[in-house]
């Protein structure tokens, strides 16, 4: 049976760290906690789980901190988590079984990351990330912000284990990342594709849409990125142009995404909304219906937006068919939307309204 070191970097995570360690502590053989400058009880809590609580002077470089944490591991494999991540009980059991039966010939294991949820608890965004790596391979971390492991060789296994993100807004500085990037720009730092993308995303989040577009476009021109990266870039560019109320450019990037793969549900929903705004309900219904019929991409590493192929298009179809006088179809799709969001008052109201119309008829 393999052995596992859990490596974490933390700062001011007193509200989340214990919860994270409880979710995985029985499975791992060693815990390395690297603290980058906590001023709360984080180190005290970490000390309850391990004697390996190490300090790392913060240098505005997440990859450097990750690499330092990995350099202190001593077990066969290294697992990494953030303090606001957890393994649900069924996923902790899956990791335990993997540890027991995993071939030592494997070099890396990926796990799905459920990183965002709606107010009903539905997963709205998930992405696959490499989580468990053989220590002897010395895989490095790259990227000063939104860092990632560089896996250039070796045997990898895509597991069905899920890491669940539980956001802790109290300890999060929304300006931290963009300040790091801007300091790097001031120093003349040349961005790799990942940094270019994530700087654009930080600008996007801060509603600097025009400047975000500038960096998304630079990212899209980089030769080393994949078609999946370009699809994601198209999604982000379409979103920026939507907020800038430039519908023509928004549609341009919706359709450009289809140069790289068959239509994705997110882009179909965008087209549906375009026609909905124009009160062209038949055209809107076409695109929303297509969104419901598309299966998830076969690319396990694609970022997946679940709302765009579950409750959202069904709710919008309910509206379209209501406007078209197709009340039975409106009821049908509103009920499907309600199955995903059973306490959503707006959908409940829509169902009741259409029910009343149908009963009167």
UniProtKB/TrEMBL annotation:
Domain (Glycosyltransferase 2-like): residue spans on this chain: 6-113
Domain of life, per lineage: Bacteria
Protein's name in the database: Glycosyltransferase involved in cell wall bisynthesis
One Pfam family recorded for the sequence: Glycos_transf_2
Keyword terms of this UniProt record: Transferase
Molecular function (Gene Ontology), one example: transferase activity
PANTHER family: GLYCOSYLTRANSFERASE, POLY-BETA-1,6-N-ACETYL-D-GLUCOSAMINE SYNTHASE
Coiled-coil regions listed in the entry: none
Native species: Desulfosporosinus hippei DSM 8344
